[in-house]
Design a protein that fits this description.
By secondary structure, this protein is an all-beta fold. It is built from no helices and 24 strands.
Length: 329
């Protein structure tokens, strides 16, 4: 009679309240596995979140019966040995029991460690946390280097995307507090040098929302990999609903992008130059009244990343300058 399959966690990351900015490695081993079985990882931060990303839910078991992957930090960690065809849930309040496709479960508390201190920069009168953990923005893994974000002598924010030690790295900052309803204003220098895959996101997002609905309002500057695409859009997520997207062409030069977020209404506008008062030439504007999120724990993000970047293609470093961020209640 075959032995009952087991899964172990042999390297446990540090215990940390969790969040989108920090990653570590988790490792383990299995025994008694069958062909096609894989590992599903979860980290607990209030609820259980699948790891490392919602669109990459499985960890492969190696020929020597070990497994290894990255995980966002949490207070506890879980590894599930699952059968072929198992469909994991991205966010759950309780781990599933054995059975119904779950062959074995291992749970470990995070190990004690000194608190992780994230880098914070000051820009436009606000404190912004600098991302150093990978994410799946744009539908693929993007890696971040904190050194890719800084402010200059004018107080402008610089975000850079380039290759570091053979890895293409991006840049993102996010406010350390939530602002809620109001007007969000971003003054951005010329993006005419962007290649087809470069993407700049100016957005509000609740990273801790306990369901799979993205609570996000976006101003996105990218051609999404197609050289003759329009290079800008306003979005109320989810983007795959056609009426949730308004695309336009952003011209060369300094532009000011604005989002007015109200109950049941999101008004976007882009004007030429660094001013927003009367006389500013309007480039594009659009009002959404469907699917508007309500404030919770959302924060403002400014992120530069690559959409479907390929290491097989030569891509030049990209830098963008945000002159100013302003919030008006």
């Amino acid at each position: 009679m075959p032995s009952k399959p087991t899964v172990q966690i042999t390297q446990v990351p540090a215990a940390n309240p969790g969040g989108p900015l920090e990653l570590d490695f988790i490792e383990g081993r299995v025994s008694g596995v069958k062909p096609g079985q894989q590992i599903v990882l979860y980290a607990r931060s209030g609820i259980w979140w699948i790891q490392p990303f919602g669109n990459q839910p499985f960890t492969k078991i190696q020929p020597d019966s070990t497994w290894r992957n990255s995980t966002h930090l949490g207070t506890d960690y879980a590894a599930l040995l699952v059968e072929p065809g198992f469909h994991p849930t991205a966010k759950i309040t309780a781990l599933p029991p054995e059975g119904n496709g779950v062959a074995a479960i291992a749970v470990s508390m995070g190990k004690s460690a000194a608190p992780i201190v994230s880098r914070v920069i000051h820009f436009s009168g606000y404190d912004w946390g600098v991302r150093n953990a990978a994410n799946d923005r744009g539908g693929q893994s993007n890696f971040y280097d904190p050194s890719n974000a800084w402010t200059d002598k004018n107080g402008y924010l610089h975000l850079r995307m380039e290759e570091h030690d053979g890895v293409w790295t991006c840049a993102e900052v996010s406010l350390t507090r939530s602002l809620g309803y109001g007007t969000y204003i971003f003054v951005v220098q010329d993006i005419g040098h962007f290649g087809p895959s470069a993407a700049l996101g100016l957005f509000t997002n609740d990273d801790f929302r306990p369901d799979d609905i993205r609570s996000e309002l976006d101003i996105e500057l990218s051609r999404w990999g197609i050289a003759d695409n329009k290079n800008a859009q306003y979005v109320v997520q989810p983007f795959y609903i056609p009426e949730n997207v308004s695309r336009f062409m952003a011209p060369a030069g300094v532009l000011t992008h604005m989002l007015r977020w109200e109950s049941g209404r999101a008004s976007f506008k882009t004007v030429r130059g660094p001013v927003t008062g009367p006389g500013a030439a309007t480039i594009s504007e659009h009002i959404f009244t469907s699917g508007i999120p309500t404030p919770a724990k959302e924060t403002t993000h400014i992120g530069l990343y690559s959409y479907r970047h390929s290491t097989s293609t030569s891509e030049q470093p990209v830098e963008v300058v945000i002159e100013k961020f302003e919030f008006l209640p």
